[in-house]
């Protein structure tokens, strides 16, 4: 069987034995790539095309150069990615507003109070307070482009806001900014690559502050704040004695009611009546990471996080999944055929993630009880129908029991004694050389599933650089054991000592890609404590195995924040000399950020370490 | 010897063969990201034309059994390698008379765009087992076969 090489060999062995048609073998049939696509110089915007740039044809039919074509394509990608995250925050804010209106449960009161204080909301009643906070977020999202969003300044770090104003990239209404990015990048409109690049950074800001940061915080209000704890991860979390609902997507608040409902006595009894012990939600993709992060609040119903984006297909082929709930990406189209084969019922709760064989139930807070009941009914039916016909084969040796999870900007601070000072002292003394955020997705092309992420992380911790992770990268890192305390042994002597004394792993698990927003808060707090701007911190960012347009929007945020951003695969821009030069050479003097393109693990680690050391020196450390 | 064969009906004019050739002969590195698509000095050795019926016609060097380019070359720059069977070009010996270009009945050979002094000629990717253009053709419109 043809198969991509994976860092997670236990999973790879399982994939080979099962022999199912998954991304792991389809990737080999897609090995021949289109070079014009890779360089970003294929234009399909009008019917004179597709046009491609070659030495003999340096312009498209319309006259667009490589710079213009790349600029338009890049802006469209970032706009799509931003749109995805803005959809998530919109859903989340709407759900919070409704929770407030209906006097629902608010599990994260501390976060609600903090948000209200930051936004200037004065309100005693907690439900009204939640409504007002949600309204402010929605109002900003729906503003026209010519009106700047009001909360941006209230949640971003001051020196950054000044810089963004100076550059003219403060975002207007976020959804309108996406809209105009599409207009701008259409045929025969904007042809200025630098203007389009700056618009991408603008989109990055609203992606980061609203799509990421605020989504987390609004979810914390409804679903509970992360608490540091140990958890089980990998395929071993799946328990065939339960009716298993695999979740895939990014919008935790859509699952909120269901997770409480599944452990109600009536539902537990209904499961027992058909011969199961109860219901379990099996974590998959980022929404699984979100459940894991807040798992303290849902111990009974959440079985654990099984894996990241490309793990979802093998997970279905264990045969233990009875129903799949999708509400966003990374819900691979490849799961459809497997779900049919293993007789897994698919239900979609948001039509943006409608799979062709799923039943669509439009989620709304008003209909949440009805929807949860219908999901339970379908799961019970399907469990009864399929279990006698499907063989179950769960690789129980896959995963770990002691992954440290629940790390957030708040829980980490609490852990450190209600201050980031201890972390800063460790950095100042050189016990920890610096901080690297290794984030983003996994793809099957940058050396293979999780391979680059895992190898780079190993290399960084060896050099006493502590790694924080969020996104599918954290799914890979936890499944290979790097987020377990025992991984301290893999770190350099100094970092090892820190980890052993604190009982922490050298790689900290912030959970889903949304939590890149939490990493930004950590960076801001460290900078604030030191009285410096973010680009001065000995902190680097890498999304080695970026996969989707969303990752590019995240990346644009990182660059706007002034962070060095490494990618192993270029974001389809290298066909433009102007854009490549601005991103890789000029950006340090614009935002302070810098794009680093490198497909070699060691040289990437060398370059990131050098940046950390240079910044230490500049800070006099 | 092996030759690159063509099935024109499968050609979608994706130009992957052209990029493959340029990557393989790029002095700045052999990966796609090192390739400067605007660099006129890095020319591909193959090309795709459109015929009267608007069909895509990939044009590749056939390394003919009796190559006219070799027969007409007066300086000895164009030679048939007796061991490999490939027609090789030596830029140093080339007198830039371009008789080879005129004599090639398949229209493969071309004069370089930038200096107009040398021939751009397929070398079968010298050190590779299979030419890179063949490896990069997604439809198998060009393939490598023993003749």
UniProtKB/TrEMBL annotation, chain A:
Catalytic activity: CO + 2 oxidized [2Fe-2S]-[ferredoxin] + H2O = 2 reduced [2Fe-2S]-[ferredoxin] + CO2 + 2 H(+)
UniProt gene name: cooS
Entry keyword set: 4Fe-4S, Iron, Iron-sulfur, Metal-binding, Nickel, Oxidoreductase
Top-level taxonomic group: Bacteria
InterPro entries, alphabetized: CO_DH_a-bundle (IPR016101), CODH (IPR010047), HCP/CODH (IPR004137), Prismane-like_a/b-sand (IPR016099), Prismane-like_sf (IPR011254)
Listed name of the protein: anaerobic carbon-monoxide dehydrogenase
PANTHER family recorded: CARBON MONOXIDE DEHYDROGENASE (PTHR30109:SF4), HYDROXYLAMINE REDUCTASE (PTHR30109)
Known EC number: 1.2.7.4
From TrEMBL, chain B:
Segments forming domain 4Fe-4S ferredoxin-type: 2-31, 85-114
Identification of the protein by name: 4Fe-4S ferredoxin
Record-linked CDD domains: CooF_like
Keyword Magnesium: no
Gene Ontology molecular function terms on file: 4 iron, 4 sulfur cluster binding; metal ion binding
This protein's record includes keyword Ribosomal protein: no
Pfam families listed in its UniProt record: Fer4_11
Domain of life (superkingdom): Bacteria
Higher taxonomy: Bacteria, Bacillati, Bacillota, Clostridia, Peptostreptococcales
Key words, A-Z: 4Fe-4S, Electron transport, Iron, Iron-sulfur, Metal-binding, Repeat, Transport
PANTHER family in the record: ANAEROBIC DIMETHYL SULFOXIDE REDUCTASE CHAIN B-RELATED (PTHR43177:SF5), PROTEIN NRFC (PTHR43177)
């Amino acid at each position: 069987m043809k198969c991509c090489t994976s860092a997670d060999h236990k999973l790879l062995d399982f994939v080979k034995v099962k022999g199912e048609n998954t991304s792991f073998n389809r990737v080999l049939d897609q090995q021949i790539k289109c070079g014009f696509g890779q360089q970003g110089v294929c234009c399909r915007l009008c019917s004179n095309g597709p046009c491609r740039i070659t030495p003999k044809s340096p312009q498209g039919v319309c006259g667009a150069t490589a710079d213009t074509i790349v600029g338009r394509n890049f802006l469209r990608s970032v706009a799509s990615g931003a749109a995805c995250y803005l959809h998530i925050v919109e859903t989340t804010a709407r759900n919070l507003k409704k929770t407030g209106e209906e006097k629902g449960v608010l599990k994260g009161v501390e976060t609600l109070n903090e948000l209200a204080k930051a936004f200037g909301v004065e309100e005693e009643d907690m439900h009204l307070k939640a409504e007002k906070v949600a309204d402010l977020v929605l109002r900003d999202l729906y503003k026209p482009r010519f009106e700047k969003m009001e909360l941006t300044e209230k949640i971003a770090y001051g020196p950054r806001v000044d810089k963004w104003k100076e550059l003219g990239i403060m975002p207007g209404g976020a959804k309108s900014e996406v809209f105009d990015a599409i207009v701008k990048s259409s045929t025969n409109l904007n042809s200025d690559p630098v203007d389009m690049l700056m618009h991408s950074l603008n989109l990055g800001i609203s992606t980061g502050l609203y799509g990421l940061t605020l989504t987390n915080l609004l979810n914390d209000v409804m679903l509970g704040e992360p608490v540091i704890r140990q958890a089980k991860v990998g395929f071993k979390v799946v328990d065939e004695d339960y009716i298993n609902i695999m979740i895939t997507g990014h919008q935790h608040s859509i699952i909120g009611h269901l997770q409480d409902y599944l452990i109600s006595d009536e539902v537990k009894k209904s499961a027992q009546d058909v011969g199961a012990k109860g219901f379990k939600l099996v974590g998959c993709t980022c929404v699984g990471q979100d459940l894991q992060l807040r798992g303290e609040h849902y111990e009974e119903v959440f079985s654990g996080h099984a894996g990241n984006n490309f793990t979802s297909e093998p997970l279905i082929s264990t045969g233990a999944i009875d129903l799949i709930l999708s509400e966003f990406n990374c819900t691979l189209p490849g799961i459809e055929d497997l779900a049919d084969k293993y007789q897994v019922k698919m239900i979609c709760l948001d039509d943006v993630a409608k799979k062709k064989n799923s039943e669509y139930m439009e989620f709304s807070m008003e209909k949440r009880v009805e929807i949860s009941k219908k999901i339970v009914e379908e799961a019970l039916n399907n469990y009864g129908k399929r279990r006698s016909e499907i063989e179950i084969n769960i690789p129980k040796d896959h995963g770990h029991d002691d992954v440290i999870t629940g790390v957030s900007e708040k829980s980490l601070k609490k852990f450190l004694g209600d201050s980031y000072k201890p972390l800063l002292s460790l950095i100042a003394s050189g016990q920890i050389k610096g901080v690297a955020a290794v984030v983003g997705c996994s793809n099957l092309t940058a050396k293979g599933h999780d391979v680059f992420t895992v190898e780079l992380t190993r290399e960084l911790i060896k050099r006493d650089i502590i790694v924080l992770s969020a996104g599918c990268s954290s799914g890979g890192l936890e499944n290979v054991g790097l987020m377990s305390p025992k991984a301290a042994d893999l770190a350099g002597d100094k970092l090892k000592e820190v980890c052993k004394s604190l009982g922490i792993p050298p790689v900290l698990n912030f959970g889903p890609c949304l939590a890149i927003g939490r990493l930004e808060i950590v960076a801001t707090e460290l900078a604030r404590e030191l009285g410096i701007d973010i680009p001065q911190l000995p902190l680097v960012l890498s999304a080695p195995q970026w996969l989707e347009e969303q990752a590019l929007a995240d990346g644009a945020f990182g660059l706007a924040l002034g962070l060095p951003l490494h990618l192993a695969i270029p974001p389809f821009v290298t066909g433009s000399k102007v854009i490549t030069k601005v991103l890789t050479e000029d950006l340090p003097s614009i935002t302070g950020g810098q794009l680093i393109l490198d497909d070699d693990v060691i040289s990437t680690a060398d370059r990131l370490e050098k940046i950390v050391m240079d910044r230490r020196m500049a800070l006099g450390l | 010897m092996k030759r690159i064969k063509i099935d024109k009906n499968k050609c979608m004019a994706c130009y992957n063969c052209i990029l493959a050739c340029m990557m393989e002969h790029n002095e700045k590195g052999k990966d796609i990201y090192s390739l400067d698509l605007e660099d006129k000095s890095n020319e591909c050795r193959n090309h795709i034309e459109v015929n009267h019926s608007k069909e895509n016609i990939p044009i590749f060097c056939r390394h003919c059994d009796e190559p006219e380019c070799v027969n007409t070359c007066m300086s000895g720059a164009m030679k048939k390698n007796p061991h490999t069977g490939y027609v090789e070009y030596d830029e140093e010996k080339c007198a830039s008379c371009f008789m080879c270009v005129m004599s090639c009945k398949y229209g493969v050979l071309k004069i370089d765009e930038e200096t107009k002094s040398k021939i751009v000629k397929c070398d079968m990717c010298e050190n590779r087992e299979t030419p890179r253009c063949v490896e990069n053709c997604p439809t198998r419109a060009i393939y490598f076969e023993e003749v």
